[in-house]
Amino acid sequence: MKLEGIRVVDLSSFLPGPYLTLAMADHGAEVIKVEAPGGDHGRSIGRLDGDSTVFFRNVNRGKKSVVLDLKQDGHREALLRLCETADVFVESFRPGVVTRLGVDYERVKARNPGIVYCSISAFGQHGPYVQRPAHDLAVEAMSGALSITLGNDDVPAIPGIPAADILSGLQGLSAVLMALLRRTQIGLGDYIDISMHDSMVSACVNVLGPAIAEGRQQFAKHERTTGGSAFYRIYRTADGRYLTLAGQEEKFVRNLLNGLGRADLIDLCLQGPGLHQAPVIAYFEQLFRGKPLAYWTEWLLKLDVCFGPVQTFPEVLADPHLQARGMVVTDGEGRKHIASPIHFASEPAQISLRTPGLGQDTEAVVGAVNAPGQRVK
């Protein structure tokens, strides 16, 4: 596997850091999850599924769990000695905490100049907001993303997925892999500062046009990806389900409207998003309400049209395409796991479905940890 032989020390919790290190574990890295005596908060988030929550096991499978109390000298020394053999260090504390704990980059680097040290936080390691606490929703709000994520009442709506968490994890993964590649050339590691806020703003590049070019906030429902296009909208069907049209290219417009015998509406759609598309939107709203979702799915599949039914999560887990790609795997206890979305041809992921119990690998990884002020044997 691509990351075989890479050792990762992971002090992160919740989602961004564990999502980063999960990708590495799935592709061969040895990930050592260092937890405080109380354990990662993710161990108690969401539905319990066997011995662990679904949330925890799907972002921490295949890792080793080591429990260390870094407020104790002996435990801190155990971690620093572990870092001497590591390639990557990931942490997600509020800025300043690792310095107080004595495991900041400078101290770890002194033990291992080749280490790639990645810090993930809400607002990064410098700037006016550096000490502000924030989770995903607050970061999405402050990035501007929520200002265009509106319900029919024009009120910001809570997104269904934690975009800031996932995006910062992916940016962190990219940075870690870049630094590891560079290390092969110069022999030195680096320090990485990943901000969830930076990651979210960076992900808004396709919707920042009005703000950058004209200094104004867009009216979301008139823009091309947030409601101003008849071919990029959500429509209700006769059975109370929902269907999306999700492709505005001319070929999709012509294929659908010609197929419906409404070529007269094509020119309105080819003029770009905006109020002039209101007649097309009204037509589609009435049209799709006339038949159930299954009917429209079957009918639209006959055309070359970009669309998708709004599926429930049980439907997604049973989706034959997802199944065919091996994205849903089942462990020996019948519990489902979401597999790695990174598909290599020659060295595919070899996913371990083992969920680590709290501290179960402590002795095997760091040996016996002694009292404060004493070194590990």
Q: Total helix count?
A: 16
**Estimated structural class:** alpha/beta
Percentage of residues in strands? 5-15%
- Order of SSEs: EHEEEHEHEHHEHHEHHEEHHHHEHHEEH
Distance between the termini: 33 Å
Largest sheet: 6 strands, parallel
Poorly predicted runs of 5 or more residues? 371-377
The overall pLDDT average reads: 94
Task: Identify the CATH architecture of the largest domain.
Answer: 3-Layer(aba) Sandwich
What can you tell me about this protein's structure?
The chain folds into 2 domains: 7-202 and 340-366, Crotonobetainyl-coa:carnitine coa-transferase, domain 1 (Rossmann fold); 232-312, formyl-coa transferase, domain 3, CATH 3.30.1540. Strand 3 (48-49) and strand 4 (52-53) form a beta hairpin. The protein has helices spanning 16-26, 54-60, 73-83, 97-101, 105-111, 136-142, 163-186, 196-202, 209-214, 250-259, 266-270, 278-288, 293-300, 313-317, 320-324, 362-366, and strands at 7-10, 30-35, 48-49, 52-53, 64-67, 88-91, 116-121, 190-195, 232-236, 242-246, 307-309, 328-330, 336-338. It is built from 16 helices and 13 strands. The chain is of the alpha/beta class and 377 residues long.
Short description:
This protein has helices at residues 16-26, 54-60, 73-83, 97-101, 105-111, 136-142, 163-186, 196-202, 209-214, 250-259, 266-270, 278-288, 293-300, 313-317, 320-324, 362-366, and strands at 7-10, 30-35, 48-49, 52-53, 64-67, 88-91, 116-121, 190-195, 232-236, 242-246, 307-309, 328-330, 336-338. The chain has 377 residues and is of the alpha/beta class.
